[in-house]
């Protein structure tokens, strides 16, 4: 069998948001700008960052992203995320370690609707012709400083972003259970660039990576302008790799959440 | 145990300069051809995974070009006493590249086909199409038809045209059809599951050089197709001998020349069962194809 994650999800879930239901409306996010860097990471310690339901990819890698959304139901906001990309069964999924936004109301909505483990910080996205710079500060501390160097135009059809998995807590029979939910935005690309990924500063502890997330070889960096969304939730899975959470199956069968769900 | 007739198909050698220098490729292939008494089938390709390409820090944008350059040069290294070259991915002064292959004029050449269109690259260059992805009868038949059409006007890279199409399949043969299908399917799914853990190029590196995800989308579809719990997908060679003969006859009717059979995945089937499957296949299935003309010999180099 492939290797599996070793995260203690009960401990990790302590900082995960509590969701009382899966029902949410779509947020359309037109005109977004997204800087996205990927790095290979040190394999063994990173296994402790993902739940047993997921397999580390070979090689393991992480994505660091900063998005700026000029339009949303709560107004303009920025969103920075750090994810370890793993496999849910056979599929690539970015497991969210931590996120920051620059708008408190956005943070509250993202927590409550899509299960983002998220805090508020200062986020900068600075697209230039020779480089694109993304920075995140928490208080006075820079916790992420990254650059796409030497941008070149590419086709948006060549860009692929893995869907996300978010760890949440759900009430069940008087207790709370950790659950993974999938957040799978759609993208319509208007412009895409590719360049070299460079990490100038990264405080893994600030993103839930503790001392186990260590970026090594850069893979690539992309910067896109696109229309995107935060969609309705369609999939949930157990953190330990058992079959689909039954209550969500029932919910899906009522068509309340639309589409379909996946059994892993 | 020594074999006398079975051909040596080593999968593919990656024709990307960060992986392999073409002189070394030519030398190693020729040596293997000599050691096998002229039974080498020379497979070429460029890899589609970041796991491999990233490991060598290869330039993903140019793998198709370097492959093309290599496959044009290697047959010349084999067949010319001395070879000199000034190219994009390598250059060399005049040298004798030794040893020369055992087969004359040289071993038959193949290219691994995962990305759509590579089978046409194969046809245009007089190369065999080494299918390494899974597809339905209809999909394969359409591709083969176009491959054959293009092959008529090919500009061969070597002195030998290899106009064969090979495809890949899982093999598990058992007297009881349900048992064979069940174990074979488990093996196929496990292979699929494992294969999907690697990092394909397209997943992480946006480039026109890899417009699709190669063989993995098909595998992922198979991994999640609803309602496929027990019945083997179309064209899979798992089950009893009767079913296998029927399936292989259909592949033959699709104009497939060869089938590469995956016998096991990560040793999930005990070796004794694998051997029993092979013996049953040899005894019950192979005779049904005894009359099929041996295209392999026709296409291969002479010994």
Write structural notes for this entry.
The complex is a heterodimer of chains A (264) and B (303). Chain A has four helices and 13 strands. Chain A is mainly beta. With 303 residues, chain B is an alpha/beta fold. In chain B, the strands form two sheets. In chain B, strands 1, 2, 3, 6, 7, 8, 9 and 10 form an eight-stranded parallel sheet that branches. A two-stranded antiparallel sheet of chain B has the order 4-5. In chain B, helix 1 (22-35) packs across helix 3 (63-79) and helix 6 (177-195) crosses helix 8 (216-224). The longest helix of chain B has 19 residues, at 177-195. Mean pLDDT of chain B is 90; it is low at 223-228. The A-B interface holds A 2, 38, 40, 55-59, 61, 87, 89-92, 154-155, 158-160, 162, 192, 194, 217, 219-220, 222, 262 and B 50-51, 54, 192-194, 196-199, 202-208, 211, 219-220, 223-224.
Summarize the structure.
With 264 residues, chain A is mostly beta strands. Helix content of chain A is 10%, strand content 52%.
Oligomer state equals heterodimer
Low-confidence stretches of chain B: 223-228
The shape of chain B, in one word, is: globular
Radius of gyration of chain B: 20 Å
Name the largest protein-protein interface in this structure: A-B, 27 and 22 residues
Could you tell me the radius of gyration of chain A in angstroms? 17 Å
Mean pLDDT value of chain B: 90
**What proportion strand of chain B?**
5-15%
> Kindly, what is the distance between the CA atoms of the first and last residues of chain A, rounded to a whole number of angstroms?
15 Å
> So, CATH architecture of chain B?
Alpha-Beta Barrel
**N- and C-termini, Cα separation of chain B:** 22 Å
Tell me the number of strands of chain A: 13
SS-derived structural category of chain A: mainly beta
């Amino acid at each position: 069998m492939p290797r599996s994650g070793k995260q203690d999800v009960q401990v990790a879930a302590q900082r995960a948001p509590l969701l009382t239901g899966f029902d949410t409306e779509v947020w359309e996010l037109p005109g977004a700008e997204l800087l996205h860097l990927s790095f290979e990471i040190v394999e063994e310690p990173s296994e402790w960052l993902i739940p047993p339901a997921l397999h580390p990819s070979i090689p393991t890698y992480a994505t660091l992203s900063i998005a700026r959304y000029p339009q949303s139901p709560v107004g303009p906001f920025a969103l920075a995320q750090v994810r370890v990309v793993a496999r849910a069964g056979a599929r690539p999924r970015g497991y969210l370690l931590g996120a920051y936004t620059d708008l408190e109301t956005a943070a509250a909505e993202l927590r409550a609707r899509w299960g983002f483990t998220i805090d508020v910080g200062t986020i900068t996205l600075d697209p230039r012709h020779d480089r694109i710079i993304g920075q995140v500060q928490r208080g006075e501390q820079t916790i992420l400083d990254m650059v796409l160097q030497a941008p070149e135009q590419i086709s948006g059809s060549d860009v692929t972003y893995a869907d996300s998995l978010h760890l949440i807590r759900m009430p069940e029979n008087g207790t709370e259970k950790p659950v993974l939910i999938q957040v799978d935005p759609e993208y319509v690309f208007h412009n895409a660039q590719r360049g070299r990924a460079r990490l100038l500063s990264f405080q893994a502890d600030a993103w839930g990576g503790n001392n186990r997330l260590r970026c090594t070889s850069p893979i690539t960096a992309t910067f896109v302008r696109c229309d995107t969304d935060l969609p309705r939730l369609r999939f949930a899975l157990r953190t330990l790799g058992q079959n689909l959470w039954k209550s969500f199956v029932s919910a899906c069968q009522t068509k309340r959440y639309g589409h379909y769900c996946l059994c892993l | 145990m020594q074999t006398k007739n079975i051909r040596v198909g080593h999968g593919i050698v990656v024709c990307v300069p960060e992986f392999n220098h073409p002189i070394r490729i030519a030398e190693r292939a020729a040596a293997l051809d000599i050691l096998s008494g002229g039974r080498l089938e020379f497979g070429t390709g460029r890899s589609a995974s970041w796991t491999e390409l990233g490991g060598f820090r290869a330039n993903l944008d140019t793998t198709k070009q370097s492959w093309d350059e290599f496959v044009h040069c290697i047959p010349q290294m084999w067949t010319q006493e001395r070879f000199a070259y000034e190219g994009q991915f390598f250059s060399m002064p005049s040298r004798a590249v030794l040893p020369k292959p055992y087969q004359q004029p040289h071993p038959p050449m193949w290219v691994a086909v995962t990305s759509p269109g590579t089978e046409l690259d194969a046809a245009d260059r007089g190369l065999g199409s080494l299918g390494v992805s899974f597809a339905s009868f209809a999909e394969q038949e359409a591709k083969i038809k176009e491959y054959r059409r293009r092959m008529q006007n090919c500009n061969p890279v070597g002195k030998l045209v290899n106009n064969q199409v090979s495809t890949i399949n899982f093999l598990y043969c058992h007297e009881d059809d349900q048992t064979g299908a069940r174990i074979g399917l488990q093996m196929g799914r496990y292979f699929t599951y494992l294969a999907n853990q690697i990092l394909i190029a397209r997943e992480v590196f946006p480039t026109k050089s890899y417009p699709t995800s190669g063989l993995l989308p098909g595998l992922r579809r198979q991994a999640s197709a609803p309602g496929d719990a027990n019945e083997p997908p179309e064209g899979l060679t798992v089950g009893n001998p009767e079913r296998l003969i029927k399936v292989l006859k259909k592949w033959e009717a699709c104009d497939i020349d060869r089938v590469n059979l995956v016998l096991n995945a990560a040793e999930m089937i005990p070796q004794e069962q694998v051997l029993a499957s092979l013996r049953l296949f040899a005894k019950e299935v192979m005779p049904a194809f005894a009359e099929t003309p041996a295209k392999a010999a026709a296409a291969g180099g002479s010994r």
